[in-house]
Design brief:
- This protein is of the alpha+beta class.
- The protein has one domain: Muramoyl-pentapeptide Carboxypeptidase, domain 2, CATH 3.30.1380.10.
- Helices cover 27% and strands 28% of the residues.
- It is built from 4 helices and 9 strands, in the order E-H-E-E-E-H-E-H-E-H-E-E-E.
- A 5-stranded mixed beta sheet has the order 5-6-8-7-9, with helices on one face.
- A hairpin with a 2-residue loop joins strand 2 and strand 3.
- The structure holds zinc ion.
- Zinc ion binds next to strand 6.
Length: 128
């Protein structure tokens, strides 16, 4: 598994897996370059198939400038292309958290309306 870079303009519509396209991981500031860890895609696809419903990605890759603007942690996994904040309509975040936990993902944060998932080396669990 590795972090790959993509161009939003050139590759935005490309499928990364059966259910995820490059553009869903783009930084919300509209930057063209997007970094995505292939292990993150693997986990998201597993979660997608487990619940059988579309995953809404609130935030995945963030440029360092954008991350700072939204008050993200300085060492944020989002900046590395290793994190996504996700939500599934009709599914409690706790259920997503529990399933992702069973997959052994690196970082997992449970928030009232979404779950942060990342593929850092090592393990971190928190409530936001
Ligand atoms: Zn996050």
């Amino acid at each position: 598994m590795a972090v790959k870079s993509f161009s939003l303009a050139q590759e935005g519509s490309e499928l990364l897996s059966p259910n995820f396209r490059v553009k869903e991981f783009a930084c919300k500031d509209g930057s063209d370059t997007i970094y995505i860890d292939t292990l993150l895609i693997y986990y998201l696809q597993k979660i997608r198939e487990h619940f059988g419903r579309p995953i809404r990605i609130h935030s995945a890759y963030r440029t360092p400038a954008y991350n700072k603007k939204v008050g993200g942690a300085q060492e944020s996994q989002h900046v590395l292309g290793k994190a996504a904040d996700i939500q599934i309509n009709g599914i409690e975040p706790k259920r997503i958290y529990d399933y992702a936990n069973s997959l052994g993902v690196g970082g997992l944060g449970l928030y009232p309306s979404f779950v942060h998932i990342d593929c850092r080396v090592g393990r971190a669990r928190w409530n936001g």
